[in-house]
Amino acid sequence: MKEARNLEFKERVSDSFLKTVSAFANYDGGKILFGVRDDGTTMPLADPAGACLAIENKVNDSIHPQPDYALDIGSDGVVVLTVSPGASKPYYYRSRAYRRADTSTVEADALALSRLVLEGRRLSFERLPSADQNLRFSVLEEWAKDRIGLERFDEDTLKTLNLLSPDGVYNNAGALLADGNQFPGIDMAYFGETVSIILDRAAFAGQSLLSQYESAVRIFHTHYVYEQVEGSSRVAHERIPETAFREAVANALVHRTWDMPANVRVAMDDTGIEVTSPGGLPAGITESQYLRDELSVPRNPILAGVFFRLRLIEAFGTGVRRILQAYEGSAAQPSFSVRENSIVVTLPVLSERLDLSEDERRIYDLLRVTRPRPLSELGAETGYSKSKVNVLVKRLIDRGLVAKTGAGRATKYRRLR
Question: pTM higher than 0.85 for the full model?
Fold first, then answer.
């Protein structure tokens, strides 16, 4: 047994546990075990019943407002304090609110505290009044008329979309969808051999999320969609499924935290795309629920509602499933990384199920379409001998997967797909 984000050990009862009570009540809840050393070994309390009384008094006297908790005494003499996620956030200890950082408890910074205050008031950032009330919506109007056949677009439309209050006040969701705003946006870069080599760069901010979305798709087409002449026709081919990219970007815009001054980051190269959305998972959803599309808890339900009406996202949290479906039949599969302050979706370039050996796959994965590499580099990175690398590369050439360029000392090899 080890300490975790929602589990803490205490050998004895002292005031130090109260910070963790604040953290558990402010976020996802958790348990504190009294009579357990840091290494997980038990050290039963001499008077468990007395410890329960002391814990109860300390919590009631020191945590404001009072959290929802329960105390139990185990058969081994360990006292278990279970703290539930609270509805009246923030929960303070000595006038300070706390949060968990992995297995530690730290004071909530100004941004985290402001989010707790909003959550306690049953508000979200997107619902707060916009600092700018002089907003125009020509982009949204065009999308609404084009995508859903809306004939009339006026203030009643904006009120129906929950972007404008009944008394005529625009909220932050309205500002994000307006033609211009002061919010961050999308930062896109196409990298070469290393991250220090930037082959293409584009940033979109201060404009409607719909314009940003459209611009991102246009950049995607530049690098990952090509036309090939087949017979008498020109056929478009996607190196990465466009539906997967659209889903990843739309969800990054809709579900990110907008009170954080950071752009959605789209990092592209010859192997694939990484879409990084600022902000971790919304409260009330676990990583496993997110990955299995079991539960939809939109951080920004107003934005999600507009994107759903415009048919840019699905309503019931099927983003992960839709991205996976786009990769059916591909050897390369997308991946999802949930971090404390971000979610990263990785979309690799499509590849056939090539039935390669492990050694062949290592060489194949090191090669790039746009950057030929010599045998010496492949040997250095794999640890294989020159003769082994030569044999493996020849097999890949024979299968039409790799091509040779140059001659003599300038000989290099690159992937064909």
Answer: no
